[in-house]
Write a structure and sequence with these properties.
Chain lengths: 544, 322, 97, 236
């Protein structure tokens, strides 16, 4: 599809070869990134479709649109598809895949064939998931809590579990590729303290993928074994402890939140200095806070289990540790804000998304403080308060960052500019629609509306109607960028090599880049974010 | 006006106010922080908007600032932690002498049984101003007992007891929700907490069709199962004399000491060999699968009734109650 | 990674040691050392694992620290999992349900 | 860590094995080795989930774990450990043979490794079959009454006994799966070694395949005492 859009005067990665084979058998990280882009967009709209059905069902207190079982499958598959098939691969597998080698001055990732393999694994997992969905679906909730998932649910738990197992394998291989690439493939002069912070964020993300995902994998394997071979590891009627499942599950699934948000933070850290024309404030603090999040993120998992029946003492330990992980996130927010101080700021679409990210992530993070406070958590956990909180982080944070990054690097990826005014309009719609959808859910949660409810008491209706209204606006905001990105591939203005006047190696090569990224291996002699040495683009300065 | 559009949940227990206080504090703190960040973004974005001939001023960063904005939040966080922990500790420590209600959850209903023997389904009557302790277990999957008006919630697990306590302060009817996803009719696993004035509550109690107190039911089951053959009430038989055991530390055969709480009694009935009392042989048969959750609750209540808490409000032996 | 070629004598030496340790661990298990049976078994297993890692897997001769860092951080993460889970299980019996 | 891993000047020898995106053969080898080590790190966490379950249940249900462990055949377990150690030796010697360019020796050693691998799996199969005959496989037919009879001194709860065997089969089963994958990898390596693909300049696949094999060996080194030797001392 993209190949047709490019007029071929100069050879680059998009027009070097044509034909379906040149895409499906490619080992070029940029082409694999585009394969991922298409696949995750597909799954995003599947998951989004489920979300809209959920919101429509909740328009009225009675369960009248779909059956209870259908509703349970809808929120389960919404969660599974969005988390494992959209959010976790989103930025790393698309933007990370495209940019990590270019940003460090390498020709490709360390293991190009493993990179392709990880896309195929993702596709296999996706097909398994789709097959599971169309042949009846699964109703355990994305959390697979035992003993419901092992002994009571009579839906396709095994299939869903194996699909996620394979998707996890794909995620591990991506992370492995990144770590090795960042260690081994940096261009001469590209020292650790000259790396773009996007790279640091991906390095931290990869650590989590590598050390967390295997634990999820073995947990799901044990769940599958329990269903197939009747092992009793999590089954209380056979001496097992269902809480052990929760411990193992959250050991991965809490850090998984950081797999989703860290790359987004990396994107924002690239955008803000660019449109402030400034060095990032506190480079080392931002870099280290990424690593700190990756490490501390593994110490807090049982804060999902404060009312699950864990001991009082471990609840205290996990609560206090949960506050530790909030510190590096706060450091990042303060540094982004400080970066704007005395800058020279323009409001391009990526910058609007970055603003949106900071605002929504701040709210998501601050409501996280509520949830780590033991006394509050008891009341609001498993209610819509939690639903609102994690959507502020994952949709308000991760997806905002993803869209911001897509707009920022779209000229590099496609060689074309998207329509700027439409971009701004869509950013505004997403921001408004998002808040209207999810802010009422905080109130609903404190009122006590439990999550995963197919029907609810009538006094919660007004807030639910607001939320549903917001979700339709949000849907428009998400469809728009897809449409104008597609449009711009043929009709967009040809992009310069560096349309934003941005720092970073990716802007020193052509748009779109050649297959091996650089004509010759670059030698880095400058610090990251050297905006004092780069002139602002003329076009942007004239805009104001 | 807010009957159909409430913005704040009813507050009907002694603990609810504590939770609300911390919540309001956090809302204020979060609003202040969000507004401060938003304001800074807006001010910087407008004040430092690109102008012709004005270059950005390059600033490397500041270690002093980094430390400041790490340490101050950490201090605030520790205050929130301590505050939340105190509330939690209070919520998780049932007072002595509380009235006990046994709860059995199953897909998809709540079965409740009062000490006095009244049974209810999806409805719990409690008096104002008395501590009520719920001793809960599940017959199948994990459920969660949630009363928003009391700001309390506790998962109900198969295979063991979890507990929850509250003291209602305001008569009324409040929601009872299942808050842990448990299958098809999860959202239908709801009920009511009916809080009554003490006089009304007594009237309700006497109006019910109770078939004797829970403990006396337990005593009957105890007899039927033949337990008294070994667990004699006069001397130490082949099994330990159970009088006065509950709530006390028990020395086990392998040298460990455990507190004889509800979970210990439960385990000792279902899987007696797991923690054998020092000086006794592991000869007791396994009752796993032979007694229902309700019978088990009655047995636990009976064993408990053999150890009246000295001087506490709930000090009544089964004999005096009958 | 090493260009270092180790002598085959060293390999055989390590192999003999591993075999002896295997027999020792199996024999010691039948002697009553109280709680130390488990400790001894795990210490011997760790010695064997170290021998394999250091010599058979060439970590002793690896020129850089990165390999060691990977190993140590994986084990560290495993310990996080074990200890924080135990923090729950070992304090459940202390009451407070 | 050094500032930059890439030497600026290109190396002169540029074998066919060097893939386009690497600057030097050394960089490529280092990348492959690091990749394998990181993968082994993820494997530690994969088995770690089961070790976590094992640790918690063993602490809670020690009697049942001890009885279950006694029912395993310690001789077969010891022999199997030795078989794996022998296979690790042949792998290590194989890497050495590859380093020195001794092709025939390399092929022989790789084949020996595969033989040891099959021997291990065979012995494991015998042990599993014994468990099957004793009705120790978790599920509907599980029966621990023989253990309760054999060890009257210790108190055994059948459901907790089943937990031990659940973990036993999960851990040894997934270990065996890794062995099977290892045998597959080594069959591949043997074929290429026989074709003469590996030289003293290029033997990375042998080296990283070996790392995988040694890792699987190390997992067994821990599984052996943890499953077979929980409590073997004479019963009082």
């Amino acid at each position: 599809m993209a190949t047709a859009a490019i007029t071929a005067e100069r050879e680059h990665y998009l027009n070097k070869e044509y034909g379906i084979r040149s895409w499906l058998l490619t080992t070029d990280h940029k082409r694999i990134a585009l394969l991922y882009l298409m696949s995750i967009t597909f799954f995003f709209f599947i998951g989004g479709f489920f979300a809209l059905l959920i919101r429509l069902e909740l328009l009225t207190p009675a369960g009248d649109l779909v059956q209870a079982d259908t509703y349970n499958k809808l929120f389960t598959m919404h969660g599974m598809v969005m988390i494992f098939f959209f959010l976790i691969p989103s930025i790393p597998a698309v933007l990370g895949n495209f940019l990590v080698p270019i940003m460090i001055g390498a020709k490709d990732l360390a293991f190009p064939r493993i990179n392709l393999l990880s896309w195929y694994l993702y596709i296999i997992a996706g097909v398994m998931m789709l097959h599971c969905i169309v042949t009846g679906g699964v109703d355990t909730g994305w959390t697979f809590y035992t003993p419901f998932s092992t002994a009571f649910s009579n839906t396709k738990v095994i299939e869903a579990g194996l699909a996620i197992f394979v998707a996890g394998f794909s995620s591990i291989l991506t992370g492995l590729n990144f770590v090795v690439t960042i260690h081994r493939m940096r261009a001469p002069g590209m020292t650790w303290s000259r790396l773009p912070l996007f790279i640091w964020a991906h390095y931290a993300t990869s650590i989590i993928q590598l050390l967390g995902t295997p634990v999820l994998a073995i947990t799901l394997v044990l769940v599958v074994f329990e269903r197939v071979f009747h092992l009793g590891i999590f089954d209380p009627t056979r001496g097992g402890d269902p809480l052990l499942f929760q411990h193992l599950f959250w050991f991965y699934s809490h850090p998984a939140v950081y797999i989703m948000i860290l790359p987004s933070m990396g994107v924002v850290t690239e955008i803000i200095p660019c449109f402030s024309r400034k060095r990032i404030f506190g480079y080392h603090a931002v870099a280290l806070s990424s690593i700190a999040i990756a490490v501390f993120g593994f110490l807090v998992w049982a804060h999902h289990m404060f009312v699950a029946g864990i001991s009082l003492y471990s609840a205290l330990i996990f609560s206090i540790l949960s506050y530790l992980v909030a510190i590096p996130s706060a450091i990042k927010v303060f540094n982004w804000t400080a970066t704007m101080y005395k800058g020279s700021i323009t409001f391009s679409t990526p910058m609007l998304y970055a603003f949106g990210f900071i605002g929504l992530f701040t709210m998501g993070g601050l409501t996280g403080l509520f949830l780590s406070a033991l006394g509050i958590d008891v009341h609001v956990t498993d209610t819509y308060f939690v639903v609102a909180h994690f959507h502020y982080i994952m949709v308000g944070g991760a997806v905002m960052g993803y869209l911001g990054g897509m707009h920022f690097w779209w000229p590099k990826i496609s060689g074309r500019m998207y329509p700027e005014w439409l971009g701004k309009f869509a950013a505004l719609i997403v921001f408004l629609g998002f808040n209207l959808t999810f802010f009422p859910q905080f109130v609903l949660g404190y009122l006590g509306m439990p999550r995963r409810y197919w029907q609810y008491p009538p006094e919660f209706q007004v807030l639910n109607v607001l939320s549903t209204a917001g979700s339709t606006i949000l849907a428009v905001g998400y469809v728009l960028p897809m449409l104008y990105f597609l449009w711009s591939m043929r009709y967009g203005k040809i992009a310069d090599d560096n349309p934003w006047g941005a720092a970073g190696l990716e802007w020193k090569t052509t748009s779109p880049p050649p297959t091996f990224n650089f004509e010759e291996t670059p030698e880095v002699t400058w610090e990251a974010y050297n905006y004092d040495e780069i002139p602002a683009p003329v076009e942007v300065s004239l805009e104001r | 006006m807010f009957d159909n559009f409430p913005l704040w949940p009813a507050r009907a227990s002694t603990g609810a106010g504590n939770v609300d206080a911390l919540y309001i504090f956090l809302v204020l703190l979060a609003s202040f922080m969000s507004l401060a960040i938003f304001a800074m973004i807006v001010i910087f974005a407008l004040r430092y908007r690109r102008r012709r001939g004005v270059e950005a001023e390059q600033i490397e960063g500041s270690t002093a600032l980094e430390i400041t904005w790490s340490v101050i939040p950490l201090g605030i966080f520790m205050v929130i932690f301590a505050w939340g922990a105190v509330i939690y500790f209070h919520e998780r420590t049932p007072p002595r002498g509380a009235t006990e209600v046994y709860v059995v959850a199953k897909q998809w209903m709540w079965k409740l049984e009062h000490e006095e023997g009244q049974r209810e389904i999806n409805e719990l009557h409690v008096p104002v101003g008395r501590d009520v302790k719920l001793i809960m277990t599940s017959q199948d999957v994990i459920h969660s007992f949630y009363i928003p008006a009391f700001r309390i919630k506790q998962d109900v697990l198969p295979g063991r007891y979890t507990t929850l306590w509250f003291r209602a302060t305001k008569p009324g009817v409040y929601h009872l929700f299942c808050a842990e996803y448990c299958g098809t009719q999860h959202s239908g696993m709801i009920g009511q907490i009916v809080v009554l004035e003490p006089a009304q509550y007594e009237a309700w109690l006497s109006g019910g069709l109770a078939t004797g107190s829970l403990a006396s039911n337990g005593q009957n089951i105890f007899q039927q199962l033949g337990c008294p053959t070994c667990h004699r009430s006069d001397v130490q038989g082949r099994g330990p004399n159970l009088a006065g055991v509950f709530g006390k530390p028990v020395l086990l055969e392998d040298g460990r000491t455990v507190i004889a709480d509800e979970n210990y009694v439960r385990e000792s009935i279902l899987s007696p060999s797991a923690k054998v009392v020092s000086g006794f042989k592991p000869i007791m048969p396994v009752f796993q699968g032979l007694v229902s959750e309700e019978q088990l609750n009655a047995l636990v209540a009976y064993v408990k009734s053999l150890s009246p808490p000295a001087g506490a409000a709930g000090a009544k032996s089964p004999e005096t109650r009958e | 990674m090493s260009e270092h070629i180790m002598s085959s004598k060293l390999y055989y030496g390590i192999w003999i040691t591993l075999m002896i340790l295997t027999v020792v661990t199996a024999k010691v298990a039948f002697i009553d050392l109280g709680p130390f049976n488990t400790v001894v078994a795990l210490v011997i297993a760790t010695c064997k694992a170290l021998l394999v890692v250091l010599f058979f897997m060439h970590v002793k001769y690896a020129s850089e620290k990165l390999t060691r860092m990977v190993i140590i951080s994986s084990i560290f993460w495993l310990l996080i999992l074990l200890f924080l889970s135990l923090a729950d299980y070992s304090t459940r019996a202390l009451g407070h349900g | 860590m050094s500032d930059s891993p890439i030497a600026v000047e290109q190396h002169a020898e540029h074998g066919p094995e060097l893939r386009h995106h690497f600057e030097t053969a050394e960089q490529q080898r280092n990348a492959a080795s690091l990749g394998m080590w990181i993968f082994l790190g993820t494997e530690i966490m994969f088995f770690g989930g089961m070790f976590c379950a094992y640790l918690i249940y063993r602490l809670n249900y020690f009697n049942e774990f001890a009885a279950g462990s006694r029912s395993l055949d310690v001789t077969l377990g010891t022999v199997n450990t030795m078989v794996l150690i022998c296979s690790s030796l042949t792998v290590a010697l194989g890497v050495r043979a590859a380093q020195m360019g001794k092709r025939t020796l390399l092929v022989i050693l790789l084949l020996l490794t595969i033989v040891f691998g099959f021997a291990f799996l065979g012995i494991k199969g015998i042990e599993w079959y014994d468990k099957y005959k004793e009705h120790h496989i978790p599920g509907a037919s599980f029966d621990a009454s023989d253990l309760i009879r054999d060890y009257p001194q210790i108190h055994i709860d059948p459901s907790h006994e089943q937990l031990y065997f659940s973990l036993y089969f999960a851990m040894t089963g997934l270990h065996a799966l890794h062995m099977i994958i290892g045998v597959g990898i080594f069959a591949f390596l043997t074929f290429h070694a026989w074709k003469g693909r590996y030289t003293p300049h290029y033997y990375t696949p042998i080296e990283i395949g070996g790392l995988y094999w040694h890792f699987v060996d190390i997992v067994w080194i821990y599984l052996f005492p943890l499953l077979y030797l929980i409590d073997r001392k004479p019963l009082g």
